[in-house]
Amino acid sequence: MNHKHCRSFALNRRFVLLTGCSGGGKSTLLQALSERGFATVQEPGRRIVAEQLAGAGDALPWVDMKAFARRAIEVALSDLEAAQSVDDIVFFDRGLIDAAVALAHAGGPTIEQTLGETLVYERRVFIVPPWRQLFAADAERRHGFDAAVQEHHRIEKALETLGYLPTELPKVAVQERAEFVLKDCGVL
């Protein structure tokens, strides 16, 4: 996987990325945005884990992080391609940047080698901060809170390196978070 695959996508001001700390409320926020009628794209990682567990695959973050991250890049690229046909704003729960960060952390190519210099999401990215009270491990999230915080810092650093503008979401109820995002996106 190299940045040639990412060059087919140019900055899209309709593609809004929600990222940050694992277990910080991204999926719940995405659901709230969907309930308000906005197009949303579920997190690639959770879909991959469900797919791999159902098929006895090994592209799981706790088995083979590189294989998992490569698969996440494939899924994120497919999601971006599918979203091209949506005329309105699209909210993504994680995506290509998160997958590139995971691949680099697993010893794969650097984030820049994977993504190149092209921004594919709106420059302003909403980032959920570590929030211990929300964090919970489950069958698809087997890492602990400390690992989630480390991942969060890697993502923040990558966003800044790539030229994105991280906007940290407040630690408030999901409906307040949704309003914050929608106001910031100019749709409220």
UniProtKB/TrEMBL annotation:
Residues annotated as domain NadR/Ttd14 AAA: 16-177
Instruction: Tell me where on the tree of life, at the top rank, the source sits.
Output: Bacteria
One Pfam family assigned to this protein is AAA_28
Q: Which InterPro entries match?
A: NadR/Ttd14_AAA_dom (IPR038727), P-loop_NTPase (IPR027417)
Q: What is the protein name for this chain? A: ATPase
The source organism is Pseudooceanicola antarcticus
